[in-house]
Design goal:
2 helices, 8 strands, 41% strand, alpha+beta
């Protein structure tokens, strides 16, 4: 592993303390993949980054500035392609606004989007897109 890749892994592992310990090795695998790429995501009130590997077909979404959601609400990830949005996971930031989520089924040409949804998620987005980035 190159020194720069090692530094990225260490920074991310420090951030993923809110991720289940069983997922840390999965995050490390994504971050050290030979084809790893990162998309910076910015919105009006938040920002984040999506680091992914097309070879592995997974990515890691990391935010440091998403606000808390009201009780009964959650953030939802979407992979948006030609057939529309597909649910890609739910997450809730910690009290500092940090969040980390692993996204499966990542492919070229998709857009990762984040919305605020009712607890348990939705089948289709019901809220405004807060962040988005093209894979």
């Amino acid at each position: 592993m190159s020194p720069s890749a090692a530094a990225v892994v260490l920074a991310i592992v420090a951030t993923v303390s809110i991720v289940e310990s069983s997922r840390i090795s999965e995050v490390e695998e994504i971050l050290t993949a030979p084809d790893v790429q990162t998309v910076e995501m910015a919105g009006e009130t938040a920002d984040g980054r999506f680091t992914y590997s097309l070879e592995i077909g997974r990515g890691v979404f990391i935010s440091g500035s998403l606000g808390a959601v009201e009780p009964g609400r959650t953030y939802q990830l979407w992979l948006v392609g030609d057939t529309g949005p597909e649910p890609a996971g739910l997450f809730t930031p910690d009290t500092a606004g940090r969040s980390t989520a692993v996204v499966e089924d990542v492919a070229a040409g998709l857009v990762l989007a984040i919305t605020e949804e009712p607890a348990g998620g939705s089948h289709q987005p019901t809220g405004d897109v807060l962040l988005a980035g093209e894979v």
